[in-house]
């Protein structure tokens, strides 16, 4: 006997940091995207689309991980040895697009785009390697009115998605204020780029880690719950205390940016940031959004280095229960800010720009937690299922399918090999409203049986009183002439769709 070599079976497993999505989530996401588009269009933004892949050099020093420039993003070389990367966000590709098409675009250029982005980072709870963002950007104006407008649009968008007023806040700060503070502790200039970015990322974790966690990251570093150690910025205690005083959540923003530190008060960029925040505050108040929807908050940082002015964060303030029952705030679902130097990298001159990005996947989880109608809507109905009870008559069944499709009704011919009951169970799993049944008896009479599957499900759950049973059974499945197929199916669909 010949030995039969056994082949090992490939294990079906999803890579860490990635997620599959079923039809219900996809349908809900589509409703979300439609609502966000409506909001963005109301503010005059138009659609644009950029590819998933960019030249790695287009990301430049704005890669998410300075110490591992090809590890923060997914990168590879093409056949001419050029480095390419999956896009890390939607902002850098937009900057490349605007620079490449600058003379053809209207200025200011207002655009929105939705798409998948990729992060080559350690996955964890709420942190994915692939997720969707929805951005809106205004390029070509330095007016802080553009920044204020994005904050107002973010508030309108959350309410359009079903988040109640009072359950969210759009928080605004200015990186120039932070830059002035970093100058005050001698972290200005290009040579301090790495430490400055470490400080900003530490401050950005204030909501999650609290003051003491940020203190550790501003100092020597911090070990997390898993034992992993994150190297800190290495600031001395005086510098740490200065930074923590600036971002003290217990103070008003006026108190926070009014500091007695001489270096800070003499910082031109720091005081410019204060002036811009005051201007945004006036614009927000004039539009009536100072009722708690939009608020100036110096704890907002944003972790990416390319921000140059106002920065904003969309935060959900309601609480949800974790698996262990503890209440927690949902937190940030979007943010953005001004990035006046990003487009200029391609052109040699600064081009003012500002933008806002919604984390679609995270926002979906939040909307699901509050049972928003956007995501809690009825599941998308499946097609009408035409059963195949006689394989020799499959062409006839295909004719029924074509009749329905030609009338604009989604329909599917059952292509399996199971019997009638199994086919009806299949139709239920497909969330079909009705099924078309024709056996030999119906065929001889030129008739078709229409099974109302929704009503049939009600029948299964109703009382066992014979009168009720017979009445529902008559409604749930009935005979019509073949020529009445369209009318009958439309009647059933009208009941439930």
From TrEMBL:
CDD domains: HisRS-like_core. It holds the Pfam family tRNA-synt_His. It is an enzyme of class 6 (ligase). The keyword Ligase applies. GO terms for cellular component: cytoplasm. Its EC number is 6.1.1.21. One of its GO terms (biological process) is histidyl-tRNA aminoacylation. The keyword Ligase applies. Residues 30-383 form the Aminoacyl-transfer RNA synthetases class-II family profile domain. NCBIfam families: hisS. HAMAP family: His_tRNA_synth. Homodimer. This is Histidine--tRNA ligase. It comes from Methylovirgula ligni. The gene is hisS.
């Amino acid at each position: 006997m010949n030995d039969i070599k056994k082949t090992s079976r490939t294990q079906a497993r999803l890579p860490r940091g990635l997620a599959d999505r079923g039809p219900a989530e996809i349908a809900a996401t589509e409703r979300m995207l439609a609502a966000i588009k409506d909001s963005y269009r109301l503010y005059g933004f138009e659609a644009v689309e950029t590819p998933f892949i960019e030249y790695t050099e287009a990301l430049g020093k704005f890669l998410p991980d300075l110490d591992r420039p090809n590890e923060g993003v997914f990168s590879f070389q093409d056949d001419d040895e050029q480095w390419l990367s999956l896009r890390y966000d939607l902002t850098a590709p937009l900057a490349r697009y605007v620079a490449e098409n600058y003379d053809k675009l209207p200025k200011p250029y207002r655009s929105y785009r939705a798409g998948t982005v990729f992060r080559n980072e350690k996955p964890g709870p709420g942190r994915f390697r692939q997720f969707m963002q929805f951005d809106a950007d205004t390029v070509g104006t330095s007016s802080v009115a553009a920044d204020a407008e994005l904050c107002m649009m973010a508030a309108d968008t959350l309410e359009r998605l079903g988040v109640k007023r009072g359950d969210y806040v759009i928080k605004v700060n200015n990186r120039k204020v932070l830059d002035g503070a970093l100058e005050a502790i001698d972290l200005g200039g290009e040579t301090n780029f790495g430490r400055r970015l470490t400080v900003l990322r530490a401050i950005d974790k204030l909501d999650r880690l609290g003051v003491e966690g940020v203190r550790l990251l501003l100092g020597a570093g911090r070990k997390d719950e898993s034992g992993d150690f994150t190297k800190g910025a290495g600031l001395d205690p005086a510098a740490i205390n200065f930074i923590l005083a600036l971002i003290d959540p217990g103070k008003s923003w006026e108190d926070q940016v009014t500091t007695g530190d001489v270096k800070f008060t003499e910082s031109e960029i720091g005081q410019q940031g204060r002036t811009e925040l005051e201007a945004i505050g006036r614009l927000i108040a004039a539009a009536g959004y100072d009722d708690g929807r939009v608020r100036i908050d110096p704890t907002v940082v944003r972790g990416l280095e390319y921000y140059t002015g106002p920065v904003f964060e969309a935060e959900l303030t309601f609480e949800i229960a974790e698996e262990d029952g503890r209440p927690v705030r949902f937190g940030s679902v979007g943010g953005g800010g001004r990035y006046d130097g990003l487009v200029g990298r391609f052109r040699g001159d600064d081009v003012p720009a500002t933008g806002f990005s919604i984390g679609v996947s995270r926002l979906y989880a939040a909307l699901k937690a509050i049972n928003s109608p956007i995501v809690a809507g009825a599941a998308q109905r499946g097609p009408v299922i035409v059963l195949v009870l006689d394989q020799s008559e499959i062409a006839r069944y295909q004719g029924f399918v074509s009749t329905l499709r030609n009338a604009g009704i989604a329909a599917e011919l059952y292509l399996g090999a199971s019997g009638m009951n199994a086919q009806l169970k299949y139709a239920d799993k497909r969330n079909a409203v009705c099924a078309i049944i024709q056996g030999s008896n119906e065929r001889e009479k030129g008739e078709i049986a229409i099974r109302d599957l929704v009503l049939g499900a009600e029948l299964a759950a109703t009382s066992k009183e014979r009168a009720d049973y017979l009445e529902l059974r008559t409604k749930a499945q009935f005979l019509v002439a073949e020529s009445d197929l369209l009318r009958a199916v439309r009647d059933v669909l009208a009941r439930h769709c």
